[in-house]
Fold:
Amino acid sequence: MRHLMSPLDFTVEELDRLLDLANDIERNPEKYAHACAGKILATLFYEPSTRTRLSFESAMLRLGGQVLGFSNAASSSAAKGESVSDTIRMISCYADICAMRHNKEGAPMVASRVSGVPVINAGDGGHQHPTQTLTDLLTIRSLKGRLNRLTIGLCGDLKFGRTVHSLINALVRYDHISFVFISPEELRIPDYIREDVLDAKGVSYREVERLEDVMGSLDILYMTRVQRERFFNEEDYVRLKDFYILDKKKMKLAGPDMLVLHPLPRVNEISVEVDSDPRAAYFRQVQFGVYVRMALILTLLEVNI
Ligand code: NCD
Structure:
């Protein structure tokens, strides 16, 4: 039985097959409409979510399966003190596969060790968010036609943003990738990523503070929200929250093919005036997220069509 804790749980070849499957689902949705008939997905969300949970649910429903779960730890037995391990043992009797989001780093991993069904990490604290990364990879590959030879700018909260950590881990496996990390001093990427992932693999990167200085050199600009819920004090958040605002003026500095991605939700970091720019791909990214989660569910349940 396979789980998904990190994008590295799949080899590059397996990822290619998963993304191919997602593209086939996009082209021929009717072929897959009953692929998971009789199967149940449990969504266990101990932390707020709109997109990830609903996109998992939509994915399972579009495969002809059914869903159950909770979207708030306070309404689950976690509020009575039940451990994640006990909860997943029980969920294994109710469902065939489970997506779990938790504020504690490693909680889905703990669950996977005792689970009777595949567990998907739907975001664990500031650590990883592998299905957002699958979404990002599918978006980039579908719209750019490749996952190599890319200069990727990651902007905003690179310290606490789990989507950033997962995406860096996944992209360093492709050839000729270089990163530009755009963040205030306080929100720079964590040392463990710098040392264990970037330096260990000899990946080229630079760190800058001003978005304006690098716009013209990017193939992808990945904007992120300042992760308020992971700050230790509100004052720091207030000081940093509007550090970056991508607007039309800054978009003029970018090339005609640069894509803007964002895992969403956005707060102020992308002005709504950018939404109509053809390079703004963040709402298309949401649609790719459903196809890739459909492909993931089929893969982990070993359903072949
Ligand atoms: C992200 C997350 O939860 O980490 N959202 C998402 O799943 N698309 C990004 C965020 O909350 O800023």
